[in-house]
Amino acid sequence: MHVQLLLIYSVSLLRIVAMVKWFEWIATKKPQIQGKKRMQLTNEQIRSVYFSILRVVVPTECASFWFAKQTARSIQGSLDWQTFLVEFIVFVPKSLLFEIIFDFFHFVVHWTCHRVPWLYKNVHKRHHVHLHPCPLSTYAQDGMDLALTNVIPFCLAWSLGFPLSDLQLHLLLAYKTYVEVAGHSGLDIKGVSFPQMPLLHNVTGICLRVHDHDLHHTRQRYNFAKRFSLWDKVFHTFREADTITS
């Protein structure tokens, strides 16, 4: 039991740190939004966030994994490339529904955290200490903030969406980590928030870019959703990043 818990913790930690380091490396090759005007983390802030990852973030990721694992479908037989391909193809529409549901609950809680002064001050404010987010500051959050805006929406989306297999659960967590860090990377790039189906953005225009969440950190009245612009557009809180000039 202890070995299994240690393995889950280690895999979650590796996934998070690897993605942070990946986007930090990309930031040395690609331009950033607002360029040299972006504020950087201090050494003390860097140490604080890494400590938070070890103490708070990874345990909440493990909690999400444990919850989903209880009902994840086991893959019968060996996992060959054909099985993986089928699993991935089926994963795409399932993950789309999951993310729409997740984003709704995240939007509601996130919006509430900004509208209720006590919640903002005691739960969510730490995440907005950084005016300009970066890959590492993705995880500058308190435990209650993570539980309300991440774990609970994840568990609700998992319960209300289509059932996923063990493999699809791991794909979901990998994608989730990727898009969370990418959204906070501050990179001036054209990538969108649902990379497993690029056509979705071309057809619907609901996928988010890095610029959209970056705007939320400088203009906190807008862009509360994490994955799509759908719920912000429904509730009239979406603003195109390129249209904001003041």
Automatic annotation (TrEMBL):
Its main location: membrane. The keyword Hydrolase does not apply. Keywords: Membrane, Transmembrane, Transmembrane helix. The keyword Glycosyltransferase does not apply. It comes from the Eukaryota. GO terms for biological process: lipid biosynthetic process. Residues 97-237 form the Fatty acid hydroxylase domain. GO terms for cellular component: membrane. GO terms for molecular function: iron ion binding; oxidoreductase activity. Coiled coil: none annotated. Pfam families: FA_hydroxylase. It is found in: Membrane. PANTHER family: STEROL DESATURASE. This is Fatty acid hydroxylase domain-containing protein.
